[in-house]
Amino acid sequence: MKTNLDGLYEEYGRYIYHLCLKLTRNKEEAEDVMQDVWVKVVHNSPRIENVDNMKAWLTTICMNTFRDRYRKGVRRSKHVMNQPDTLDVPLLDLVPSGNLTPSEVLEKNDIELMVRTKISELDAIYRKTIEYFYVHQYSLIEISELMKVSIGTVKSRLFRAKKYLKEMMIQDDTVQEYVMA
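Structure (tokenized):
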């Protein structure tokens, strides 16, 4: 197993480091995140044989590790750190940012209700996939094990669920009025 992990590191180490650097924009922090990623990879090494797309699996581990570290920092500091403008991780926007104004609380509650309502209207398979990934924060591997399907199927379902959810939101006049107001 050791040579397999060594080969994995040789093949994807630079990619993971550059992804960590892009997310953190800080060399030392990127190295810390990368170290945490490889600790998780070693911990989950028995699952490696079942991975369909290694790069996607490693990317998921990296993104989840970054999110976990980010959330810990937010909890400790009681305020949201400034995110880089180019960061493409929309889930980070869901992390509470301390004290919200009353209008922000109302707006947040309205949006959450609209999204929950639309999610509940999705087919069960898509609704469950979204709940596992976004609500319960399961990895793609964990979802594939729970649903007894391949990781590729989970990715497809997640992609389609988001697409259908977006279409439903766009078609809803109430949502459009709220967003445009």
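The first helix runs from residue 2 to 24. The helical segments are 2-24, 27-43, 54-77, 102-121, 124-135, 140-147, 151-171, 173-180.
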